[in-house]
Fold each of these.
Amino acid sequence: MSAALLTVEDLVLDFRTRSGMVHVLDGISLSLGRGEILGVVGESGSGKSVLAYAMMGLLDPAAQIPRGGIRFAGRDMLTESERSLAETRGREIAMIFQSPRTALNPIRRIGAQVQDVLLRHANISKKEARRRAIEALARVRIPDPERRFDAYPFELSGGLCQRVMIAMAMACDPYLLIADEPTTGLDVTTQAVVMDLIREQVRSANASVVLITHDLALAGEYCDRIAVMHAGHIVEIGTTETLLSTPRHPYTTRLIGATPGGHARIEDLASIPGSLPDLRRDLPPCRFIERCDRRLERCAVEKLPSVNLGPDHRVRCWNPL
Amino acid sequence: MTTATAIMEAVRLVKRYPTGHGILHAVDDVSLAIQPGESVGLVGESGCGKSTLVRLLGRLIEPSDGAIVFEGQDIAPVPLRRFVHDKARGRIQVVFQDPTESLNPSLSVFDAVADPIRRLGKAADRKTLASQVRDAIELVGLPPEMEARLPHQLSGGQRARVGIARAIALRPALLILDEPTSALDVSVQAVILRLLADLRSQLGMSYLFVSHDLNVVRLLCSRIIVMYLGRVVEEGPTEALFRQPRHPYTRALLASIPDPARRGQTPWRLEGSASSPIDPSPNVCRFYGRCPRQEARCAETMPELRPMDAAGLHRAACHFAEEIAP
């Protein structure tokens, strides 16, 4: 895709730890078009959050990237200076974090926190920033934004705090929004409202979204395309319809089968045997091999292929369904 | 619903907490019954009182008013200090939400499971105790060599199994499960849910299953109770409730379940948050202020639970419950 806003190309990422190298991401490739919502779905430990942080240029110093690249709007995010990254973050790429209560500063008024983003990135007066912060709060439909400007996070419900986070993220009209489990811990009714709001905001700004989630059904409802991660690999990526209706990787199939919804009986709920491999060890080319019922001999020895199954459907498997 | 056969019956159960601003009505006039072997789901948003109700039924806190009839005996008036030695204590067990938080980090798997047996069971000697612990551990599918492990040496799924083993060690008649899988990944959740279904048919327990995930409740429960702001607003057989929700809150709840089939659509959403549970007006419907339908009548008389079908199994507390949703 030439018009891609963000491309990740064969990204390999390791963390140096006291107990050795942890091979967190391996051969990650994806691209994101303008106005597109991409879901990154995986269980805990699959590397989806690290991928999000890498896209933001927010990696821990212990992270090493022996191979691969991340390009955002024509720039190489991995070689960019910290100073220019700081300019990019907040203005061009914004992030919504998992738990709004801990992501917001508990001892500062919420309006001031939205104002900060504007003062940092838009060359405007404090008065103007206040006006635009109130506007941003109103856009995410926080009732009575002028009065709520002076509220502290503890005075707001979890759903309202998440709206403040969205207002902060969208305040400078970013091109890319990275939402890391934005609705975890919220009630399902609030989750629906927050997700509608994220979709509405990015659609009206023609921004793109990377939605990091463990909930395949949620990604299925809101995303145009979905990437499924397992142990640091994107095992399958495709349009939402294709991926959900004709999954080809054995892990995707199991994940769909294990997600409650549409099963007639509890016996129909699929289980996924085993657990994630220890990423500190020397790993076989396919990291799903121990849990897979379709494994072949070559899976343990040959480098995983990236099989194109359609114009926009890719799977990393020697023996796809 | 009053039936002589119910294993657990709450009658007009009330829990109020005094606060600096007034009286908080956490559980307000809740009546429910659980039949032997039945699996009942309890759903509602955070703050609706479902956890308080769970603690009341598990007799972990004192009710302000009402009766809790368990196996024919009203256990509500039994003081907590006496109840911990009551034989009913072992017959009602709770599996808590987060298996990491609810296990004592310094107790081995063996000791965690043995604890309720030592306190309440009649394990004659060490050998009987050990065999009872081994049984419980085997029932939840943990290998025997796990007995010596400490919680931090276990995976999330294994901890969840220990929490369940501890609760079933005394072979309770009623197992109360408070969001038992909410901290787990889907692959592990699927395994634990199937284990819970197996255990119920194997041991003949009744379940009260609290969850925010309606898809999970649908798979595991034959009947669902929906709570809103301290009150039961709807209850009924699972499929009837999914097919034809009668209360606008239940409709909003069902419409919020993530569903890939709804991609691109924006159905009506329940905005805002519940009104305050402190000194609520006894005459106003609790859903007033958030309800799309609200009329003058809703602010004058609080709707009571009414039967929606001939058998009286499906009941809803809304003045307009008979109207079918568009």
Amino acid sequence: MSGNSAFQLVSERCWRRGLGSMLKSEMSRWWKTRMWWVQCLIWAGILGFLLGAILFSSQDAPPSTEVAVIYAVFAGLFPAVGVVIIMQGTIVGEKKDGTAAWALSKPITRPAFLISKVIANSLGVLVTMVIVPGVIAFTMQALALRTPWTLPGFLAGLSVVFLSDFYFLSLTLMLGAFFSNRGPVIGIALGVLFLQQYLVGMLPFLRYVLPWNLMIPLGQPEDAVIPCLLVGSHNYSTILIAVIALESLLFIVIGLWRFSREEF
Amino acid sequence: MSTPFVIETHELSKTYKNVHALQSLNLKVQQNSIFGFLGPNGAGKTTTIKLMLGLIRPTAGKASIFGMDTIRQSVDIRARVGYLPQEPHFYEYMTARETLRFVAGCFFKGPKKAIEERIDEMLELVDLTDKADRPIKTFSGGERQRLGIAQAQVNYPDLLILDEPAASLDPLGRRDVLELMSKLRKYTTVFYSTHILDDVQRVSDTVVILNKGQLVAQGPIEELLARSEGIVYIVHLKGEVEAARKQVLVQPWVSGIVAGQHNGESAWQVSVSDPQAAEMQLLKLLVDGPVVVTEFRRKQYELEDVFMQVIEGGSNVRK
């Protein structure tokens, strides 16, 4: 057709074809709608309120380790529910309402479609569910605790909080690539999230496979990864961090494989 | 690789579990043609389109667009195609302008001003300029359809695939779409599915009729119409009708007469095997006889007649 000579074809090649456009679109879903501030408000509000109640309700400040464990539970476990809820609609929702088929009728590869969702949602989760509530929590404990967390320890702890969220993000994304209904996706992802405690209890080796021990202590109060990093203890498993990171990547790879076979 | 055909399919088939959605489809679509893809609901039209776009994989056979394989080179094909889905769904958080920007960004880059001008041009084309910055979630079905038409063309496609483009439009919207398709023929090939026969007859060059996943008729419209029931003359007459009927029936070029009544007159449909002989002799034979001829014309077939014949013919059964 008679094109416009001012335009050049997009230069992305192979699997990256369409990644730029999809990424822009996914970013605008987070940052050009009210989604970002609603998420910030929810998670900063929940964490700030609960931590504030513990830190400022009595004359004596609680021990630093206790606050670190409470932070790990509220910052690590609760937002994971939000991640599952957001992500379950990302793939299944688009498969059901036809927008995935429409987008994929453009020169967008399936890996670009899926990876744009991983990048944009990871960034959205990192800022609104991890960094913003984290900064509030860090400020509050710095004001209240006699021996506050160090900044490097806090940043390391924050990274593991994000890793835990990323695990559920990639798990939900993979499930979305397999199923066409929201039920199994949200059911399995939340099942893994809430049944971890029982699974680890029944099969102890699962403590190195599931992200439970990133947040929740299994024996001593300071044997969970996030509290340890916050208070500067080294009593945590680096293997667990590596395994969870690898599992998250594996979920994405499996999701990509399944999505490439999907019919719309 | 260059080919005179924009779309070619060879024994293209798609089966879902035990349902044959498409069976051994062989199609050839000429460049710069308007190709009407007809069929009742569930005939396999949308399945064919999705196979062409690589959204689904064929169970058997193959298809190529611009000489490229629809499975291995799907993204390269889609880079030259504009597509309007049957029920257009867009990202609800975007406005119409943002949607066009997103689509344009999938195909090309360039000066922002030039891209915005192209977007404005498309919005104007489908009469959505005043609604350009409204979120899509507030759009009616007709407005979504119009936005669908705009986004299908924003990339200057070499092939425009439209799945029921006039389905949710009012008569004026339908007319505009048909006019647009006629205008675009100069630049692009239009492949569109529809069940609105009148539209097909107005703008298409070539037609394919699909029924129960099988191709039942294919060809230029004129050929399809000519191939229908043979040549038939409509004759209304009064007087000594029976004598005239016997006289006509003995002619070697008359293959039959279907007689009926119309406003108190006899109404015949005379089937003939030799159009030239019929043209020269039929009217003369009647006028010279004991009857008064009140109407005499050759029957004009409509696409609807052909469509009903091939669909109701029942020769194609889904296994």
